Amino acid sequence: LWDPAVRFTKLQPGNVAGVACTTWRITSPPPKRGEMASEPQEICLSADGVALSFSDMMQTRTATNVSFGAQDAGRFKVSTGYRTMTMEEAQKLEQQGGAAKR
Asked: pLDDT-based confidence at 35, cuts 50/70/90?
């Protein structure tokens, strides 16, 4: 689940696969006891939120070709069995280890 303490720092404009983007550094808060520290990551996002490049200490993934066009509306249908839940319900489910089972 998303940690609201994660910080985004705007770095510089860029261009990946012919699409303009802005590079952001993503920094996690200090780890809690027993957790491993997380290295900063960088992501280059287009103006409409498309992730074109992502780097962490292990690897970099970069788009080599980007194509914008109409999408099949069927890809965005709500799945059978979908249900809404509050953040508290989601956290409780995750703590119980049942998130993957449902």
From this structure: confident
The residue with tokens 């089972």 is: 101
- CA separation for the pair 88, 37 (Å, rounded): 25
Q: Per the structure block, which two tokens stand in for 83?
A: 């249900």
Distance of CA 4 to the CA centre of its chain: 13
3-class SS string, the chain: CCCCCCEEEEEEEEEECCEEEEEEEEECCCCCCCCCCCCCEEEEECCCCCEEEEECCCCEEECCCCCCCCCCHHHHCCCCCCCCCCHHHHHHHHHCCCCCCC
pTM of the prediction?
0.62
What contacts 87, CB < 8 A, 6 or more positions away?
A: 1
